[in-house]
Specification:
heterodimer; A: 129 residues; 5 helices; globular; B: 641 residues; alpha+beta; six-stranded antiparallel beta sheet; 15 strands; 55% helix
């Protein structure tokens, strides 16, 4: 089962997104701050990260940095209300796979996640070979 | 003969003074030497060493015969006369205008005078030449007189007054007692042999005393007389000097120029005046400003003079106030007027303009003393003009900076607004999509929570837009009114009271008593509302243990500003920089909300000639600081709503 970590300081968003992906067969992990998210990454080693960039304290970019250190193959989707090129390129440099802007549609998000899951499966298949 | 002995010394002394070389140590030592020689020759004049005897010569019943040292007297005479003339001639070469004419007339007069006078000497050595040149000496007097009147060599009124006072003072104090002494010789001898002989030494002592005090009495009377004669002149000179010290305080160029023209015209009482000022926008010309006349006629002067014209070049080269008569003949076509003055003004090498003054209404000519005053005035006018131009540039720069800051603030605000509304829309969009997908169809509680989330976020979005709309509406008015900052602060705190209480936020206030009202625009009412909204969102965005807001208002030591400090225990601003697209933005948002408020507060502070700054330390909360001027000298234009 693919593990997805959802990081958003809005508890409601975490719950609703979590419910959505849980319903679709993913194992959902959630955190409302960066510190908890890093702890979960270390412990659970999720394959996909859904990270809100703008956070008080440790933000989504820092979490991504640390997660990539733990597991370079981890897939990450950055979520932000800021549509700045600088932020986008910063996220890309840190190894983010996708970048979506708020308000996002579940449809688009789901398609992204499916694409990432396929990539993961492909990589695993290649490795198995 | 005693008088003639002093001619070379006094002539040389006069020339040195006139050509302004009387501080040259070498030259002035020659003056002392000349006077010493003159005194020696004057004493020897009574001995046969100077005048051997007198004999009939030509048609004259008697004529002196030169003694053995007379030739040295002639040598002394010739050296000083020739050297004096040489110094004059050298000065003529370098001078120009009226000054050149003055020097020239003295030089020519001196040559004629000396040549005429020299015809006296041959007969002393029995050379049969008549002293026909004596008549030429009067030409010297005539030429000097002409230079006095026509070329302002000296002020004839002052000269006459000084001469008269000299004659009266020295006549009464010295000549009368001396005359009495010589005419009453018999009586004096009688006194000397009588028991009252002591009267004589006392009389001599009295005479010596009179001789000693005579110069002081002369100087005192001369000063008094000049004070009376030059009363008007001194009065306006004082007025002009006083004006020159105050013109630099005027900040507006047009006002400054008008003041200069009118004040100078009235003080000096001239028939007309105007000023030509270099056009700042187009440096190619000087434009006439404030043509002013006291008798209804202003000459036909050009409205503009090209900067590249020969007149401007001449003034740039000359650099000094100049009499209208001194202007070269080719400029008469441009500035055709008599008995007036042109006063150029400079800053460093650049000519800023020039003041044109017509003749004095009294008909009295401008003096050298006037010129000195105008020199000072011209310097001060130059500084004052530069000052106004500098202040104007500074003001424009300040306006540009204010505008730029404001635009920067607005751009930041739009950026924040975008960010905040997107977050709010997202919070609404997530549950709305879930509802649409039927995710909550079997879960009434989740459905109700989703609707509540949507409703709360609509409210939040409306609140944020209300802050923006309020600023937009209030910024339309530029009117400045006195406002009590402490009252605004208290009413703002009261506005948030319920929300603060509901979220366990404790507010402390430290407001100094007797804070004076500030001059402020309507937007000022929203300043604290926006700052406190930012604090509120920062404190409620994340769960926090201590939710405190501290408000401080204090009057600055010089009582010119009110120091405002609003601190909270919310997130700090030290780390929230990495993902903002504007690295030099005035503030960084601390959470998902409140950024718009912060930028609105920043713009409002900017509108009131102040700047909102912050202090923030890691995990130490954030303090917003603002030094608000009590008076608002220049309020920037409002942002169009």
């Amino acid at each position: 089962m693919i593990k997805i970590l959802i990081l958003d300081d809005e508890e409601g968003i975490c719950e609703q997104l979590g419910g959505f992906f849980k319903y679709r067969g993913y194992k959902v992990l959630s955190a409302t701050n960066g510190k908890d998210a890093i702890a979960i990454i270390k412990k659970e080693n999720p394959e996909i990260l859904l990270l809100d960039i703008k956070m008080a304290g440790i933000d989504g970019l820092e979490v991504l940095k640390k997660a990539k250190k733990e597991n370079a193959d981890v897939k990450a989707v950055m979520i932000t209300a800021l549509d700045g090129e600088e932020t986008k390129s910063q996220a890309k440099e840190l190894g983010a796979d996708e970048y979506i802007t708020k308000p996002f549609s579940y449809d688009v998000l789901e398609k992204l996640i499916i694409r990432l899951v396929n990539e993961i499966l492909k990589q695993e298949g290649t490795l198995n070979k | 003969m005693v008088g003639a002995v002093f001619i070379p010394a006094s002539y040389y002394h006069f020339i040195l003074t006139f050509i302004d070389k009387n501080r040259d140590k070498k030259k002035i030592s020659l003056v002392y030497l000349a006077y010493i020689a003159a005194v020696i020759f004057a004493i020897l004049n009574f001995t046969p060493l100077m005048i051997l005897d007198v004999r009939p010569r030509l048609i004259f019943p008697f004529w002196p015969t030169a003694g053995p040292i007379y030739k040295y007297f002639l040598l002394y005479f010739a050296i000083y006369a020739i050297y004096g003339c040489y110094l004059l001639l050298r000065e003529v070469k370098y001078a120009n205008g009226v000054r050149r004419n003055q020097l020239f007339y003295i030089f020519v007069g001196s040559l004629i005078g000396y040549f005429g006078g020299a015809t006296n000497f041959p007969l002393w050595y029995d050379i049969k030449i008549y002293p026909f040149g004596n008549i030429l000496s009067s030409i010297y007097v005539g030429l000097i007189g002409y230079a006095i009147i026509h070329y302002r060599l000296m002020d004839i009124t002052i000269l006459a007054a000084r001469t008269l006072i000299f004659i009266i003072v020295y006549g009464i104090l010295l000549v009368v007692p001396l005359f009495t002494f010589f005419s009453s010789r018999a009586i004096l001898l009688q006194i000397l042999s009588s028991p009252n002989w002591w009267i004589l030494p006392i009389s001599v002592a009295f005479y010596a005393t009179l001789a000693s005090i005579a110069p002081f009495i002369f100087m005192y009377l001369r000063r008094r007389a000049e004070n009376v004669l030059l009363k008007d002149q001194r009065h306006y000179q004082r007025a002009l000097i006083q004006m020159s010290t105050t013109v630099t305080l005027i900040k507006e160029l047009e006002r400054l120029l008008k003041l200069i023209v009118i004040r100078v015209t009235r003080a000096v009482r001239v028939n007309f005046a105007c000023i030509y000022l270099a056009d700042q926008k187009n440096n190619a010309r000087l434009v006439q400003k404030f043509p002013y006349t006291t008798f209804g006629f202003f000459p036909n002067f050009p409205k503009e003079i090209p900067y590249a014209s020969s007149l401007v070049s001449y003034l740039k080269q000359h650099r000094q106030p100049i009499f209208s008569e001194e202007l070269p003949i080719e400029f008469k076509k441009v500035l055709d007027f008599k008995s007036g003055i042109v006063i150029p003004t400079f800053v460093r090498q650049d000519i800023l303009g020039f003041l044109v003054l017509g003749p004095k209404s009294s008909g009295v000519i401008y003096t050298e003393e006037d010129m000195s005053v105008f020199r000072i005035l011209a310097n001060q006018i130059g500084l004052a003009i530069e000052n106004t131009q500098y202040l104007k540039e500074l003001d424009e720069l300040h306006k540009k900076i204010t505008e730029t800051e404001k635009l920067k603030g607005i751009a930041q605000m739009m950026y924040s607004l975008n960010h905040e509304l997107r977050n709010i829309f997202n919070k609404m969009s997530v549950p709305a999509q879930m509802i649409e997908m039927g995710e909550f169809d079997n879960n009434k509680e989740a459905f109700s929570d989703a609707l509540k989330t949507i409703s709360n976020n609509i409210e939040l979005g409306t609140e944020i837009l209300t802050y923006v709309q309020s600023y937009s509406a209030k910024s339309k008015s530029n009117e400045v009114k006195p406002k009590r900052i402490d009252e605004i602060m208290r009413s703002t705190t009261a506005h948030f009271e319920k929300r603060f209480k509901a979220n366990n936020i404790v507010v402390t206030e430290r407001i100094e008593p007797n804070i004076p009202p500030v001059q402020a625009r309507d937007t000022f009412d929203d300043l604290f509302k926006n700052i406190l909204a930012n604090c509120f969102f920062a404190l409620t965005d994340q769960p926090r243990e201590h939710k405190l807001i501290d408000i401080q208002l204090a009057l600055s030591d010089d009582k010119s500003t009110i120091n405002i400090k609003v601190s909270d225990t919310g997130p700090d601003m030290t780390k929230i920089t990495s993902y903002t697209h504007e690295t030099d933005s005035p503030f960084k948002e601390r959470g998902k909300l409140g950024g718009v408020n912060l930028f609105l507060a920043y713009i409002i502070a900017n509108d009131h000639n102040s700047k909102l700054t912050f202090e923030s330390y890691e995990k130490g909360g954030t303090s917003f600081l603002l030094d608000l001027p009590i008076h608002q000298p220049a309020i920037a234009e409002g942002v169009p709503g």
